[in-house]
Amino acid sequence: MRRLRALRPAAVDERGQELVSFCGHCGVRRHPLDATPASRVCGQCGLGLVLQAGADLAPRPDEPFLIIDTSLSVCAMSAAAETLFAIDETDAVNKHIADFLVPADANAPSAENLLTLLVDVAAGSREACTTVVRPRQEYGVRFWARIGPCGSPRAALLVLS
Hints:
Layout: E1 19-23, E2 29-30, E3 50-54, E4 65-68, E5 74-77, H1 79-85, H2 89-92, E6 101-103, H3 114-123, E7 129-135, E8 143-151, E9 155-160
Antiparallel strand pairs: 1-2, 1-3, 3-8, 4-5, 4-9, 6-7, 7-8, 8-9
């Protein structure tokens, strides 16, 4: 006899978007309504805090990502981002995001101000969006960046692809 799983309501944010939980270090996802863990530390890698973001924004384990607060400081960096930027997370935390990423074309008249965008997202006054960024000291390298709210606590999630 096959067992059917009970229906459960989906976890949603204040805008009605489905939320997923993910590790702030390895990026492994788990559904927020799965059994409540005894700790907010990831049970997979044991290094990152479990955060929540919209299902369409949350990173995959192989995507580099950063968590940025309203002061534009890096709060967390994924293992893939550590490799990309050649820095350990412990050395990256509390550094300004501009030490790592800048707008891809800062001189374009339509270029979005990356720093304002991140502050607005981290403060919860702006929805998820995409933009193009580049590493601070690299020219000719471009990344699409998905930027949106995550938490708890509230911050901006920047996923590079």
